[in-house]
Amino acid sequence: MSTNTFDRLRELVCEIKDLDEDDIQRDTLIKDLNFDSLDFVELQVTVKKECNFTMNQTFFTEKTTFGDLCDHIDGKE
Hints:
Structural class: mainly alpha
Strand content: under 5%
Helix content: 40-55%
Number of strands: 0
Shape: globular
Radius of gyration: 11 Å
Order of helices and strands: HHHH
């Protein structure tokens, strides 16, 4: 996982959810961040714009970690 992807995505999520960066680690489950439907759409649009990656609902319902998402964006999975 690219450090830049992790750092940038963590920054974006912290802005959307009003969290501290310490709240999100590589092993943090995305579903534990308690995204509501508007948060999901906002993050989905932001990731598409910033990373050219289309997220789907499974990232928010499966046992996907924040690191897994970054790996997907970086094309490692």
